[in-house]
């Protein structure tokens, strides 16, 4: 395979021995070439912007800037960027947060070498990839999140849901009060209750929640 046809990989990991071993493994495969190594998230973000790799292998826990901080910056720079988390963390919350932030996959460092190489290629081709041990954890976390969202939605009164729809439309308390024929102070109390029940800090966050959960219609 000609060099220009190889997939270009950036490794971001603070452990020197692991990083060098990973580079040797990837470079030994004719499908890939490692174009850079970074020792922390901040350096990784800078190198990603400079090198424009086909895929980034990103550790979760690093000094200076963690993987969870670097990930959204990489995606913001290039929304199509393939980022695979390569970590020792089997925490379902880490997994869910990484996928929410745009990671294409979540792989544990103890995976088989062929599985890793195949996963990189699948991710570049557009698939999402997970270590086998993490699949059930993702399903469990999503189910718990769905159940929690249902409880939150059920906690809202019909009037609060109605006001939430108006909030999702970007309307002020004054506009909502006029349309619902109540006082602004009444709307203010309802909005405060909505923010508390949704566990969000602002009207904007409440509006985003409503849109994401189909409560804006």
UniProtKB/TrEMBL annotation:
Residues 149-214 form the HTH luxR-type domain. GO terms for biological process: phosphorelay signal transduction system; regulation of DNA-templated transcription. Keywords: DNA-binding, Phosphoprotein, Transcription, Transcription regulation. Residues 8-124 form the Response regulatory domain. It comes from the Bacteria. The modification 4-aspartylphosphate is found at residue 59. The keyword Membrane does not apply. PANTHER family: NITRATE_NITRITE RESPONSE REGULATOR PROTEIN NARP (PTHR43214:SF41), TWO-COMPONENT RESPONSE REGULATOR (PTHR43214). This is DNA-binding response regulator. It comes from Snodgrassella alvi.
């Amino acid at each position: 395979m000609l060099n220009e046809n190889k997939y270009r990989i950036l490794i971001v990991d603070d452990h020197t021995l692991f990083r060098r071993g990973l580079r040797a493994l990837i470079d030994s495969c004719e499908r890939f070439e490692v174009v850079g190594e970074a020792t922390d998230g901040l350096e990784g973000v800078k190198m990603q912007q400079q090198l424009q790799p086909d895929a980034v292998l990103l550790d979760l826990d690093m000094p200076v800037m963690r993987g969870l901080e670097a990930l959204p910056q990489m995606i913001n720079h290039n929304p199509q960027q393939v980022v695979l988390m390569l970590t020792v963390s089997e925490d379902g919350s880490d997994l869910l947060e990484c996928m929410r932030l745009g990671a294409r996959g979540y792989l544990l460092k103890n995976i088989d070498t062929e599985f890793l190489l195949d996963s990189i290629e699948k991710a570049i081709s557009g698939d999402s990839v997970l270590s086998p041990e993490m699949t059930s954890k993702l399903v469990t976390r999503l189910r718990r999140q769905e159940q929690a969202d249902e409880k939150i939605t059920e906690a809202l009164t019909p009037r609060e849901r109605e006001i939430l729809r108006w909030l999702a439309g970007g309307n002020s308390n004054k506009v909502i009060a006029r349309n619902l024929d109540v006082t602004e102070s009444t709307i203010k109390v309802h909005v405060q209750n909505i923010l508390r029940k949704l566990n969000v800090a602002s009207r904007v966050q409440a509006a985003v929640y409503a849109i994401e959960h189909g409560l804006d219609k």
